[in-house]
Amino acid sequence: MANKNPPGMIIYATLFPMFERMSLEQVGQLVMGMCEYFTTGLEPALPAELAISWPLVQDQIDRNVAAYNKKTAENDLKGAYSQYARKAKDDGETPLPYARWKDASAGCAEEERDASVSVRDASVSVRDESVSLCSGSVDEPIKTK
Q1: Which of 76, 97, 122, 130 has the most C-beta neighbours closer than 10 Å?
Q2: Quick one: 88 exposed, middle or buried, by C-beta within 10 A (0-12, 13-18, 19+)?
């Protein structure tokens, strides 16, 4: 999944002391600059007296977006595993534990790690305990029934 902005922007209370030292017009300019950066990724053209505070503000926005993207990616991966496990069980197969499935699919392209991946599509070697969900086949699927 491509990185994207969260649905909203957080303005932390830690910025309040900085806002208190500014006029309402300056606060408005800075907040509009924050919104511009958040929505477009372009640094705003701020007056010199506000530009000095920009690195702090930009860092907070960047960290929030990174945290959002990390959480979204984790949730997408958990959703894909859930669909994989459900399909494997429906097919009478024992799904890999989440940790092994996650490790095995780590190098896969997103399309290959799609929810339609089943144990039949995985390469599993009992001898060396290596697992690959990126193309390959299992000689005999693991049956639970």
Answers
A1: 122
A2: buried
For residue 26, is pLDDT > 90?
A: yes
Q: What's the mean pLDDT when you consider all of the chain?
A: 77
Q: How buried is 95 (Cβ within 10 angstroms: 0-12 exposed, 13-18 middle, 19+ buried)?
A: buried
The most distant pair of C-alpha atoms in the chain lies apart, rounded to whole Å, by: 71
Q: What is the distance between the alpha carbons of residues 70 and 3, in angstroms, rounded to a whole number?
A: 9
Please state, in angstroms and as integers, the Cα–Cα distance from residue 21 to each residue in 27, 83, 114, following that order: 9, 52, 51
- Cα radius of gyration rounded to whole Å, the chain: 23
pTM of structure: 0.63
